[in-house]
Amino acid sequence: MSLVIKGGTLVDATGTRRGDVRIEGDTIAAVGDGLTADRTIDAGGCVVSPGFVDLHTHLRQPGREQAETIETGGRGAALGGFTAVVAMPNTDPCMDSAAVIREVIEWARTAPCDVFPTAAITVGRRGEALSPMAELAQLGVRIFTDDGDGVQDDRLMKRALEYSVGLTPFTGGQSVTLAQHCEVSVLSEGGSMHEGEWSSRLGIPGQPSEAEELMVMRDIALARATGARVHLQHLSTEGSVEMVRRAKAAGLAVTAEATTHHFTLTDACCADYDPVFKVHPPLRGDRDVDAVKAGLADGTIDAIATDHAPHTRDSKELPFDQAPPGMLGLETALALALTELDIPLETLIGLLTWRPARIAGIDDVHGGPLVAGHQANLCVFDPELEWQVAGAAMASRSENSPYEGRTVRGRARHTVLHGEVVVHDGEAQR
User: Fold this and answer.
1) How many other CB atoms are found less than 10 A from the CB of residue 204?
2) CA distances, 363 to each of 158, 180, 360 (Å)
3) Is there a catalytic annotation at residue 307?
């Protein structure tokens, strides 16, 4: 059946305008006024944009299905307006081999959003030997990361970057990106929150800003030396943002993301010792939050990522220093961005769509302009709808949202994946 999304405000990389979008099969067939089709979705009062793309999602499968699966995480993504997510490799077993990558790709075939697996830079994410990057690139992997840990060995990281530049024969000419969890372990080890005034008050060992910033500095230097593409994950400090700003001004192939929690929450949230606010990198201070917001506004930071990290209730009820780090993020990302960021709507949507799609190497399918001939991966959202966050009501198998009970503004009403309406009026269709 053909479908028309009618009467919305269309926002994409080409600008903002009013119009209808007609979809036939998996493709946008026409954009204009007065379009008709077999089925109509009323988008009056809503924004129609490319589907969102998350560069940083933990889907836990294989090995930790009690917290999340590709199916449940994919459903949460679709409900949040995402049509594509990039899955992190810290699963059990780790996504460092062709066998595991093939398994993830197969599981993802029935998910209500597209799932693009990353692969580990090093075998087992242990930072000792490089994974079979060429073989994994042939399977479609375009981002390599040891997320959850930074690659500590400077020489090994330089070798990985040099190797990545030569992988284009295995990718059909497409570039590969190495993404880094920026954390120097000898400085962060034992720390459960940001090292600062609040960690001193609470008596909780902290992670200093320098643990992140030293690795950001190193990887920018290695990007300059190798010409490789480096993506810096979940930036959280003022110093990190400024270093990326200078790297971009120097023309280096460096990109960066920031999570919703790093521009909405501070280390003061840990005052009640509630482990739901424990995350790595940790929540930082007010100046850091302001710097992340400024980086998103001026283009220093390329993408809003969720770092969606589900954990079972019993694990998050452990004492603060024993509980695992991480928060849910897929279903709240849009609302938090709309509620907390004072930036133009076009800029905000770019941070969620075409800019992360370009980094992931999927901009031929996701994040593209709303024009005839492009894949029909779309989100229709109401930017003014107010709602209250409730972890138990989310699609995830876990409930660890730090925004429990908070009233936010903006929510996806419809999500279209390759022409199929996978979310209709806020309800998942599969």
Assistant:
1) 20
2) 27, 21, 8
3) yes
Q: What is the pTM of this model?
A: 0.98
Distance between CA atoms of residues 252 and 249, nearest Å:
8
Dmax (CA) of the chain: 63
Task: For residue range 53-62, list pLDDT tens digits in order.
Answer: 999 999 999 9
86, β-bridge pairs: 116
Q: Are 146 and 133 in contact (CB under 8 A)?
A: no
Q: If you write DSSP's letter for every residue of 392-420 in order, what string do you get?
A: GGSSSS----TTTT-EEEEEEEEEEETTE
Q: What is the pLDDT of residue 230?
A: 98
Domains and CATH numbers, the chain: 3-46+382-387+390-428 (2.30.40.10), 51-366 (3.20.20.140)
Of 12, 219, 302, 307, the active-site residue reads: 307
Answer whether 10's CB lies under 8 Å from 21's CB.
Answer: yes
Task: Name the pLDDT band for 282 (thresholds 50, 70, 90).
Answer: very high
Q: Give 314-370 pLDDT, tens digit per residue.
A: 999 999 999 999 999 999 999 999 999 999 999 999 999 999 999 999 999 999 999
CB 336 within 8 A of CB 412: no
